[in-house]
């Protein structure tokens, strides 16, 4: 009888986390819907048009690559 009680307690302890994961808490939807700002396409395109074009192309790997022209070696 003692071993049966110990086995029942062990099974109950093992099953408790499993039951807790399956439960969904709460009553009702207390979540408030957040209002997202409306996207103004005209203003977005106008802002993109105001960005100036770069005069020369930026090369982020320019320092790591060897120069194409051997006459222009950095010191």
UniProtKB/TrEMBL annotation:
Residues 1-20 form the signal peptide. Residues 26-59 have a biased composition (Basic and acidic residues). Keywords: Signal. This is Uncharacterized protein. Residues 19-75 are annotated as: Disordered.
């Amino acid at each position: 009888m003692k071993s049966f009680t110990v086995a029942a307690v062990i099974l109950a302890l093992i099953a408790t986390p499993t039951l807790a994961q399956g439960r969904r808490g709460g009553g009702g939807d207390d979540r408030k819907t957040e209002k997202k700002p409306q996207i103004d396409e005209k203003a977005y395109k106008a802002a993109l048009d105001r960005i100036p074009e770069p005069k020369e192309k930026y090369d982020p790997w320019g320092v790591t690559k060897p120069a194409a022209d051997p006459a222009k070696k950095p010191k």
